[in-house]
Each structure stands twice: as C-alpha cells, then as structure tokens.
Design a protein that fits this description.
With 392 residues, the chain is α/β, with parallel strands linked by helices. The chain contains 14 helices and 16 strands. The strands form four sheets. Strands 5-6-4-1-7-8 form a six-stranded parallel β-sheet, with helices on both faces. Strand 14 (308-312), helix 11 and strand 15 form a beta-alpha-beta unit. Helix 4 packs across helix 5. The mean pLDDT is 94.
Amino acid sequence: MKVLTMDDVELRGKRVVMRLDLNVPMKNGVITSDKRARAVLPTIRKALDAGASVILLSHLGRPTEGEFDQTFSLKPVAEHLGKLLGRPVAFCADPLAGVDVKPGDVVLCENVRFLKGEKKNNDELAARLAGLGDVYVMDAFGAAHRAHASTEGAVRKAKVAVAGPLMLAEMEAAEKLLEHPARPLCAIIGGSKVSTKLTVLENLLKTVDCLIVGGGIANTFLAASGHAMGASLVEKELEPEATRLMALAKERKVDLPLPQDLVTAPGLDHPEKAEVRALSALGAQDAALDVGPESVRHYAPFLNKAATVVWNGPVGAFETPPFDKASRAIADILAASSAYTVVCGGDTVAAVEAFGVADKMNYLSTGGGAFLEVLEGKKLPSVAALEDRAAK
C-alpha cells in the first residue's frame, strides 16, 4: 500500500481533520467497550504532539441519514475520550457551521451520519468535510470499505490526505496474510451463513493451506456432504456452492477438515438440554449450536502445525454457554501456538477477550467487514483514494 502517512507531512500549526472509527457499543448512553476509542489514541496524540489543532469525525450506529437522533449522538464519546486523553475534548454539534479549535486542542464533531449525503458520498458534503482543515487523516479502518463522504470522498477532496497509523497497521496485517504469509497458512471462518462469506471462502482457497469452517457455515457444508442436520441452521440453496468449494479445496490440495461431532439443543433458549452428538445421531428437533470436542481434536493438528492463522467468526454460539466450548478450546490452542495469529471481526475479538487470551494473539483487527473485504481480494474504497492521492 503506497500512501502518504502522518510522518510525510508538516502538522505543526495545521488544522488536522481525522476520520476515526469511534463507533463504540453503547447502552443507555453508556459506553460498554472503549476498545475502538483506545485504538486511535496514538493517532490523536501524534497530531497533538506535533502542535496541530485536531478535529475528529466519526459515525456511530445506523441512524436515519439527515436526521438527528439522541441515541446515536457522539457527545458521550467526547466526554469519555477526554478522560482517556487526559485533556478536555470539546464537542461540535454542527461541524458544517464551522469548527473553532486552537493548536493543542481537540474537538469531536457530531455523528457524520446525521449529515445528509454522507452514505451517498455526496461531492459537496465531502468537499465541506475536507475543507474543515489543512490535512485529512483517514484512520477509520472499520469504515474503510464504505465509499462515504467522510471515508472516501473527503480523502479525494482534501488539500492533503494521509493514512493514519491504525489504518497502516491493519493493512500491513492483511497484506502479511495474503501476500507473504509464513506457511502453513490456516484460516478459521465461522459465522451463521455461507452467503455472507462465500466470496471470502473462495478467495481464501487460492491462498491458504488449511480452511476450517464453523457455525452455520459448517452446517451447510455438512448438509452438502450428505448429513441430516435436523433443526440446524442450513442454507439449502447454497449446498451446491458448498459442494463446489469442497471440490475446489480438493483440487488445490487445501485441507478442509469438517466437524466430526456437534453440540446440539432444541434452541439457544435451552442450553440446559445441550448434548454432544455424533453426526449420524442428530434428531429432527436437534439444532447444532457448536462443534464438539472430537471436532476440536480433529482441528488441533492443523492448527498446531500452522505458521500463520487468521480467525474470523466463532465456531459456535459463544455468547451462550455451553456453546462456547469449542471456540474457547480453539482460542487456547492459538494462545499456546507460535503461529502469527490475526483475529478479525467484532464477535471473534470479543470472544478471545472474554476467554482472557487476547494478549496472546499477534493482531486484533478493529475492522470486521473491512478486513473481510480485504480477504476477499477487494480494494477498499478508502485505500484506493489514499493511493490515488499519494500518486499525484
């Protein structure tokens, strides 16, 4: 990725606009996890230390575009960010009316998705956002796959556009996986539906040495292999695609170990009825909600010999014990491994954090959808815009 960075431009005395990902989870106006806010602190401090005036932009949630909704206001985030930085962070409710900021000060602007034209990448809005400052820093990897006014349009309209350190770190981690991985390279892809990850599965089969599937994705692969899946979530219309991917894996000599047993229950609301069942023993009312212990033992040799692992998506419904056991066991294997391990996607990062092994992983990505699109082989709109600006 050939882009300009914050080290390539003069920041002293400049108004620096930063598009960050401060889309933190909130409940009743209280932030429940500030991981994303903490991830961008070095970016903000870098500009402050250089003597810049700092203007922050971000989205929060999915409000109706062009309409103010208190539920999605970034004002509580400004207050929390001030505590993390150890200095006041002012709040600007209407950035298009102008942002008053002095060198050494920080202002967080209201949710960009309240602005009409943000999601449609309106040219005029992009120009006005870019015009808030002298330098535009794109450091919102979690939103880099969206061609919005603040993530792509403003990068192209800004006087000077650069990538922030978090953006660089995320792309370097992705490039390391796709372009120069230490081998064997193993991917673990969980999730409820094949349809949401079909392209990434196919693209990974061009790159990986081993592909482990979990969750509802594994259910569809098992159904395509001829197993009766009872009441499990299965995308019947995608069974032919699962069959094609298994044939592709065989053709490319990619190991694709499928579950050997499953943890079932009538539903997530009946965890007390969880039972480990052989693939041949699923009843009509049994729903597969995790892979079983024999499956984990089946996966272990592939994971233990891997030199690089990328994990996106828990292999079971980890939020509801006892359907977290397989994901927990895999996390423990990776924690004890010497492999370079990248964990991406909100649920997967939350899982390794809940299991207490996050510090044993080499890289935790802040971007779920964005990282998946990179794994699919797609060029992210924000990255394309940054590269184009650097080439001029």
